[in-house]
Amino acid sequence: MSSAVIESLQSIIVDLPTIRPHKLAMHTMQQQTLVILRLRCSDGIEGIGEATTIGGLAYGNESPESIKANLDAHFAPLLVGQDASNINACMQRLEKAIKGNTFARSAVETALLDAQGKRMALPVSELLGGRVCDSLEVAWTLASGDTARDIAEAEQMLDLRRHRIFKLKIGANPLEQDLKHVVAIKKALGERASVRVDVNQGWDESQAIRGCQVLGENGIDLIEQPISRINRGGQQRLNQRSPAPIMADESIESVADAFSLAADGAASIFALKIAKNGGPRAVLRTAHIAEAAGIALYGGTMLEGSVGTLASAHAFITLEKLVWATELFGPLLLTEEIVTTPPVYRDFHLHIPRTPGLGLELDEERLKRFARQ
Ligand code: MUC
Ligand code: MG
Predict the structure, then answer these.
(1) ipTM, interface predicted TM-score of the complex
(2) What pathway does the annotation place this protein in (predicted)?
(3) Which of 22, 78, 145, 173 suits a disulfide with 177, CB 3.0-4.6 Å?
(4) What atom in ligand 1 is closest to the CA of residue 22?
(5) Those residues with Cβ within 8 angstroms of residue 284's Cβ, 6 or more apart along the chain or in another chain
(6) Ion ligand 2 contact residues with beta carbon within 5 A
(7) What residues have CB less than 8 Å from 76, skipping those under 6 apart?
């Protein structure tokens, strides 16, 4: 195969409206901001990647603006002129020169995989060793901040056969108010749905002891990141005593974090996120650590748009088991698309294309309309 070199990288910040405010413990989203990466190669092939976080710097160490600045100033010069088909060599070159920045790294790894898939006429899942299924069940997050509105939204999702797993965002309100809210929603939905919570580090250990007990006793299936990622001892103790399983999310900011969490027995489920590991290949390293340690898997999201969502999905469909399903609903939270053919959601599942690369094409006109000037 004749080799192609990377000619340029272009990062674009895109602001898209959401269907409603999305309330998390640390931030209320009124819109979502994506960073789209276009990686152009000498054979005329373009790979697309995405790096997206939540609430500027409210969630993690990288913001859309820092991601763009670092891609432009530090990642691009290291990549231009390199062999575009050698993803190992490109990512190892970045590894040597750049610390952290897993969101930006994920956009690059995604774009390289997309380009290589197009070059070889293979879907990204096949470059990752091959898919074992074509679709993934997708949870929906109820986060309007209002109990009645959340119940109505869940009923609508069940009627549409779009979701039957619901994650509730709590941790911002007083503990008892949050517990009442969750129990009311579970009572209304009963056995028709799996109800889970994400506290986004909103409790301290003393609150979490009661919170986990009450939620576990009331049929809540999973408790995500109840306390600070820094409180490893607390997370180990909760993992031992909570009647509902504890899932690590913010605790994992790298593949190395996943290893130390597994070694410490600090979670029984890992949320897999390409952005927090450094890409679709990197997230599979975390998945393999979990598999070796007997930790169950969940396909997480940073509420990416279609590019990041399908990049995640191509990695997740190569895994043997995702016991806790996924939450790859990011595109459904947005009122606008920047790709020509949006991902397909049907019968509670996201269906992953078999076309080359990620299976997406940017809609130039829409991208231009929503790109930040
Ligand atoms: C998170 O903390 O898991 C995922 C779904 C959602 O509503 O928020 C995100 C982030
Ligand atoms: Mg979470």
Answers:
(1) 0.99
(2) Aromatic compound metabolism
(3) 173
(4) 7
(5) 128, 315, 318, 319
(6) 198, 224, 249
(7) 8, 9
